[in-house]
Design goal:
The chain folds into two domains: 107 residues, Rossmann fold (3-Layer(aba) Sandwich), CATH 3.40.50; 121 residues, Rossmann fold (3-Layer(aba) Sandwich). Helices cover 37% and strands 16% of the residues. The chain has ten helices and eleven strands. The strands form three sheets. A five-stranded parallel β-sheet has the order 3-2-1-4-5, sandwiched between helices.
């Protein structure tokens, strides 16, 4: 049975609920799911404690090319640790990578939640078709940053019938002045509660007159068991915001 350390909250949850007990021996301080997770904490996603990880003598460390820094991955490998680096920028890619990760972690079978996630996304009915709603999706403020090109969250929104206005930007997470975001005149501003904890007040304050949806960031950006419930949850949150704006 392999010993695994995860540096990616989404993958931590996927392994914890799918692999045999005892496989997952370490995770970051940001790995919050499942709620009762009891493993050694090894620092943050951007500043893992390489020595603490090596001391756990893992057979495998799970990382992600976006979530984790290349120097930390290189340091782990230099310490003799095997690191599996995932790349997840679309839903299809995420489902494939999840199967690869779970197989590497000794999951005895394909978990039910993975099949349920595929079925849920296959059954999605876009909020509006053929012309989707347009949106800007801030992920940070001070400075304002938004979803740009080639992102997992952007792919999920496209499937839901929401077109990210910055999906063709040269950068994946560009910094865009607030005045420019307002001038883009989106139908909708989507405000996830992570990595920046936006609140319901941030939408009307920054984007007066625009439908603003505060969404569960875990539903929008995590690739794991939450994918099974994400289509329904996100559709409901986006629809609620659009209905409120019409009143």
């Amino acid at each position: 049975m392999p010993r695994v350390v995860s540096l990616v909250p989404s993958l931590t949850e996927a392994v914890a609920v799918s692999a045999p007990p005892g496989v997952l021996v370490g995770a970051t301080d940001w790995c919050s799911h499942p709620a009762a997770l009891d493993v050694v904490r090894v620092g943050g996603t951007k500043n893992p404690d390489v020595a603490a990880i090596a001391a756990l003598r893992p057979d495998l460390v799970l990382a992600n090319e976006e979530e984790n820094r290349a120097p930390d991955i290189a340091a782990l490998r230099a310490a003799g640790v095997d690191v599996l680096v995932t790349e997840i920028r679309t839903l299809d890619q995420g489902l494939r990578e999840l199967q690869r990760v779970l197989a590497a972690c000794g999951a005895p079978r394909r978990p039910r939640w993975l099949a349920e996630a595929e079925a849920a996304w296959d059954a999605v009915v876009p909020l509006r078709s053929p012309e989707p709603y347009t949106a800007v999706v801030p992920i940070w403020r001070r400075p304002w940053m938004v979803l740009g090109s080639d992102t997992f969250a952007g792919d999920l929104l496209t499937r839901l019938g929401v077109r990210n206005l910055y999906a063709d930007h040269a950068e994946r997470y560009p910094r865009i002045p607030l005045d420019e975001l307002r001038a883009a005149a989106p139908d909708l501003v989507v405000l996830p509660d992570e990595p920046y904890r936006f609140t319901r007040d941030d939408g009307p304050e920054a984007f007066p007159g625009t439908a603003a949806a505060l969404v569960d960031g875990r539903m929008l950006t995590w690739y794991g068991p939450s994918l099974a419930e994400a289509p329904e949850r996100l559709s409901r949150e986006l629809s609620r915001a659009l209905r409120a704006a019409r009143r």
